[in-house]
């Protein structure tokens, strides 16, 4: 169940990040959103380009911000690949791996003030998927506790320290930029499912994998809590903006 839960939470991160980016693009100009997320865009774009090169294709027309109204990063994904199925999966996975590695590095370098304030037992997302309706509600409640604990840790940290501010900014950029690139979203989702299957197979064959997942679980939980909190906050803001517009039109 641990490996299934890992796959589930990775999918939650990707879909929640996708939703956050879409909501932000509705509230403000998409080009401004992509400019704000530039550090995360750089990391994801490097992973995307590396995936194209690894699969034996050439990189063409690459830019961090496009010239159109959205300002989305641009990289021409080759229509044909030397690795027809595997190529799309690799290209979809490497941006996620790059953002995860960068988030780990940022946490080690500048995230001590925030991460030290997290309650170990409350910050961890569930390590097993629910098998009943009651367990599903328990999972939802536990996930809300993770978000609440994360927010409390952020508020209690010294936000005046530049290290804390930089870490939070990079954490937002990197988690939201786990949104799959347009044109390769199916490959990213398939890559997560295949990665989960490979992790499960490796875990059954090698007993040393589970301790490694135990070490990575706090960072996975942090990413889940961060992106879900951003999604919840964005939905509230979007609802308030819509309510104000309705009232303004009515008067």
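^ structure tokens above, recovered residues below v
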């Amino acid at each position: 169940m641990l490996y299934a839960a890992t796959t589930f939470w990775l999918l939650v991160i990707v879909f929640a990040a996708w939703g956050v980016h879409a909501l932000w693009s509705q509230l403000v100009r998409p080009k401004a959103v992509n400019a704000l997320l530039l550090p995360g865009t750089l990391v994801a774009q490097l992973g995307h380009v590396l995936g194209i090169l690894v699969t034996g294709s050439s990189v063409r027309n690459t830019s961090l911000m496009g010239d159109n109204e959205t300002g989305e990063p641009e990289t021409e994904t080759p229509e044909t690949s030397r690795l027809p199925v595997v190529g799309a999966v690799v290209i979809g996975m490497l941006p996620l791996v790059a953002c995860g590695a960068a988030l780990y590095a940022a946490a080690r370098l500048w995230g001590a003030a925030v991460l030290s304030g997290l309650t170990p037992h409350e910050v961890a997302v569930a390590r097993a998927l629910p098998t009943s309706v009651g367990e599903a509600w328990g999972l939802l409640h536990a996930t809300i506790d993770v978000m609440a604990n994360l927010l409390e840790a952020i508020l209690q940290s010294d936000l005046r320290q530049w290290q804390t501010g930089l870490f939070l900014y990079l954490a937002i950029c990197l988690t939201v930029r786990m949104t799959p690139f347009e044109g390769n979203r199916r490959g990213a989702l398939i890559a997560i499912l295949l990665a989960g299957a490979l992790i499960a197979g490796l875990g059954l064959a090698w007993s040393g994998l589970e301790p490694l997942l135990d070490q990575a679980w706090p960072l996975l939980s942090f990413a889940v809590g961060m992106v879900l909190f951003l999604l919840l906050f964005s939905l509230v803001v979007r609802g308030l903006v819509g309510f104000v517009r309705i009232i303004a039109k009515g008067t």
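The chain has a mean pLDDT of 83.
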